[in-house]
Amino acid sequence: MKRLLVVLSMLITMTGCEMYTPPPKPPPVDTSNPAQVRANITVERDNFKKMTTYEGPDITSPPPRNRSTVFIRAWKMENPHHTEYQVYASSITEGSWKHYSSANDSKGNNFKVTRVQSKVLDCRSYGGCTHQEDVGISVTKEYLEAAVKSGGMHFQIAGTAGKEEFRIPGGYIQGFLATVQ
Q1: Contacts for 60 with CB less than 8 Å, ≥ 6 apart
Q2: pLDDT at 64 over 80
Q3: pLDDT score recorded for residue 124
């Protein structure tokens, strides 16, 4: 009987010690495919503000600068009835702050820039730090519709100590606009 209890307790212990397997990562979003972009837009409703927020999926910069991201977001208000659009750009860089304060597209258009956040992500003992600087770039629905027809949006954010380029494919913008309507 004692031997049976030992064997049973060993079996119970062994079955409780399975290896943890993390859940599989979802496949990356094809940011040129309007249907995939639409399927990955986050929509949140605030009943107190009478506002719906839309946020598109992140577009990560290609290597070696694959630590910066961009996406489009919008706020649809009920009172007064209107929708605001913004391109959100997040730049992660080594060294000093870039102090981003302006944005221009490849056609020379200048945009209003709002600083969203700036934070230090990491500092090494030799003094080099990694910084994240996020900005919001105000755009209109008409501008985004024109960008769909021209193949997308190619723009640069700039500051006193540097600049960075971003691209948003036309299919991404098309999928986003179809969701917000």
Answers
A1: 66, 67, 68, 69
A2: no
A3: 74
Q: How far is CA 118 from CA 2, 19, 70, 99, in A?
A: 65, 39, 15, 9
Read off the pLDDT of residues 99-124 as tens digits, 9 standing for 90 and up. Answer: 999 999 999 999 999 999 888 888 87
Task: Give the amino acid at 22.
Answer: P
Contact yes or no for 66/167 (Cβ under 8 A)? no
Phi (first) and psi of residue 120, to 5 degrees: -90, 125
Question: According to the model, what pLDDT value does residue 93 have?
Answer: 84
Asked whether the beta carbons of 167 and 105 are under 8 A apart, the reply is: no
Instruction: Report how far residue 25's alpha carbon sits from residue 9's, in angstroms, rounded to the nearest whole number.
Output: 36
**Residue 132: exposure state from Cβ atoms within 10 A (0-12, 13-18, ≥19):** middle
- Residue 169 exposed, middle or buried by CB count within 10 Å (0-12, 13-18, 19+): buried
> What is the pTM for the complete model shown?
0.80
What is the residue whose two structure tokens read 């599989």? Answer: 24
The Cβ of residue 76 has, within 10 Å, a number of other Cβ atoms equal to 18
- Going by the DSSP 8-state scheme, the letter that residue 41 receives in this structure is -
Cα(10)–Cα(5) distance, rounded to whole angstroms?
Answer: 9
Distance CA 155, CA 170 (A): 13
Render pLDDT for 122-161 as a digit per residue (tens, 0 to 9): 887 666 788 889 999 999 999 999 999 999 999 999 999 8
